[in-house]
From TrEMBL:
InterPro entries: Beta-glucanase-like, ConA-like_dom_sf, Glycosyl_Hydrlase_16. SUPFAM superfamilies: Concanavalin A-like lectins/glucanases. Belongs to the glycosyl hydrolase 16 family. It holds the Pfam family Glyco_hydro_16. GO terms for molecular function: hydrolase activity. PROSITE patterns: GH16_2, PROKAR_LIPOPROTEIN. The keyword Hydrolase applies. This is Glycoside hydrolase family 16 protein. Keywords: Hydrolase, Signal. Residues 48-281 form the GH16 domain. Residues 1-28 form the signal peptide.
């Protein structure tokens, strides 16, 4: 473990103090000489529980429409729409559905929602409870993209992939950051493998806790990775506003194309999205 101050996240307020202490002691066991700083994230600043049937809340969500440039830069195969066939709220869940159909010159449709221009923020705990789809060529993601900066483009604006997943690997998700000198195939990433279960058979909470000098990645409040400025080979570009994206892609360089065994439609179900802001730190 590196000889530097570690930022140890506080679990959500609903979690017990015993769980928090377990995290603190687990880190302390690595090197008892390190100063332990616990960031406290308990001020809820965004919450969508998808309680109202119909279209997603227009005060929070926008849509990307179409195929983007070169399949959204990834050779993706779908055409993104805002149709109810591809995105809707039903019975307390957001449904993002990928369909195999001919539409506007594409062989698949799906949806991509984003909070750009409606909710953009720097730092905090971002989490969503999601049940993932399954199948070769299915690529759901919950991620953050840096807000527009005059004269700057991706990857200089930064990208934080809270969760992305290859449908053909139903026990594995990845948490990743992209920036200048560490993007695309050179991104900084780590896998998390679910033991004895699959991400397409039930809901799981995917989250990050993000501060000025760290991004911590979680699955179900299990901290499985921490990325700091020392871990990236280029500039740390995670000190400005980012917005949220939820999408379900089909095909692309990350997952490959669907095959004969891929069943359609496939749906990504989202129970909630929440963002908490830090209201201080505690030293141990």
């Amino acid at each position: 473990m590196k000889d530097k101050k570690r930022f140890i996240p506080m679990l959500r307020v609903a979690k017990s103090k015993l769980a928090l202490l377990a995290v603190v002691f687990a880190f302390a066991a690595c090197d008892t000489s390190e100063e332990q700083t616990v960031a406290v994230f308990e001020d809820l600043i965004l919450e969508d529980n998808f309680d109202q049937d119909g279209a997603p809340d227009a005060s929070i969500w926008n849509y990307d429409i179409g195929t983007g440039q070169n399949g959204w830069g990834n050779n993706e195969l779908q055409y993104y729409t805002s149709r109810s066939e591809n995105v809707s709220v039903q019975n307390g869940y957001l449904l993002i559905t990928a369909r195999k159909e001919n539409f506007q010159g594409s062989g698949y449709t799906s949806a991509r929602l984003l909070t750009k221009g409606k909710f953009e923020n720097t730092y905090g705990r971002y989490e969503a409870r999601i049940k993932l789809p399954y199948g070769q060529g299915i690529w759901p993601a919950f991620w953050l993209l840096g807000s527009d900066i005059p004269g700057e483009i991706w990857p200089q604006i930064g990208e934080i992939d809270i969760m992305e997943y290859r449908g053909q690997e139903p026990t594995v998700v990845l948490g990743t950051v992209h920036g200048p000198g560490y993007s695309a195939g050179q991104s900084i990433s780590k896998r998390y493998e679910l033991q004895g279960d699959r991400f397409d058979t039930g809901f799981h909470i995917f989250g990050i806790e993000w501060g000025p000098e760290y991004i911590n990645f979680y699955v179900d409040d299990v901290l499985y990775n921490q990325i700091t400025p020392d871990d990236v080979p280029g500039e740390w570009v995670f000190n400005h506003d980012f917005y949220i994206i939820l999408n379900l892609a089909v095909g692309g360089s990350f997952v490959g194309s669907p095959n004969a065994e891929t069943v359609f439609p496939q749906t990504m179900l989202v129970d909630y999205v929440r963002v908490y802001e830090s209201n201080g730190q505690r030293n141990f």
